[in-house]
Amino acid sequence: MRRHKSGFVTTGLAAVLGISSVPDAALSAGALQSPVPAYNPYPPGVLPPDLDSEIGRVQREVRFIFNEALNEWRQLPRPTLAGNPPTLRGSGYEAVEILGKLLNFDLDMSPFRNEACGFCHMPYVAFSGPIPSVNLTTIGYPGTLHYRAGKRTAQRYTYSPDFPVLEYNPTQGGFFGGNFWDARSTGYKLQSADAEQAQHPPVDTQEMGFPDAACIARFGYRKRCTGRSLSWFGVRISTSVGRATPSRSAPPREGQRGSAAAPRQFG
């Protein structure tokens, strides 16, 4: 979101044209043409002066990586799902990597289509925040609404998956594990602190800002590349409700046996 400078409406008509009044319609038209500045809740000097240009730079880098993954996906042969339990054969390992790359650097993964997970986790800075001026000032990174900043520094992908579930060590008399100092993601429910942390940014109003997790499936599946990649893993998403279901069998209709127990991964 760029800052717009407010325009001033001048009416020196009395001096130039000898007109002492301006019709309301003319004033209304002038007001409509004036750019509306984006709301900035912070006092002057809080946000870095290069924030807008740096956001644009990172967004260009994110698009480059996404397009790189898109080309890799187009050249990848379809993996084979076989065996019991079923596993992906052939190009399965590469398919998992490329799917993660597509999802991580997709700017459409936000309501305004301007915020990707990778925006705060770029490879050249150990998968953390890539804007030096933000790292030295606000620490928290701007979300899909660029004047709303996150509450925490962007953790690094290089170590966050290795942290265990938060637990108390009686020998050392302290707590260990989890992600973030404020214990936002303890890992207790999923038994993985990093997996639990990954659930928060898409629905955080300070970050990607979706109102519901179902929007992730809906927005992602609109892209042919992401939808096809998910189908390789046996997942089909109903875009009408944003629900993921196994692709091998259609979900039971309302009223049929088993409909109450139908799995709902999203929504």
Which terms summarize this structure?
267 residues; alpha+beta; Cytochrome Bc1 Complex, Chain D, domain 2; 2 domains; two-stranded antiparallel sheet; 6 strands; disordered N terminus; disordered C terminus
Overall 3D shape: globular
Fraction in helix: 25-40%
Most strands sheet: 2 strands, antiparallel
Average pLDDT for all residues: 74
Order of helices and strands: HHHEEHHEEHHHEE
Uncertain ranges? 1-34, 241-267
> What is the top-level CATH class of the largest domain?
Mainly Alpha
Largest beta sheet: strand ordering? 1-2
Structural class of the helices, strands and pairings?
alpha+beta
Question: Any overview of this molecule?
Answer:
It is built from 8 helices and 6 strands. It is α+β, with helices and mostly antiparallel strands. The chain folds into 2 domains: 1-38, no CATH class; 51-150 and 204-261, Cytochrome Bc1 Complex, Chain D, domain 2 (Orthogonal Bundle). The strands form 3 sheets. It has a two-stranded antiparallel sheet with strand order 1-2. A hairpin with a 4-residue loop joins strand 3 (167-169) and strand 4. Helix 3 packs antiparallel against helix 4 (92-104) and helix 4 runs antiparallel to helix 8 (224-232). The longest helix has 25 residues, at 51-75. It is globular and about 60 Å long. The two termini are 29 Å apart.
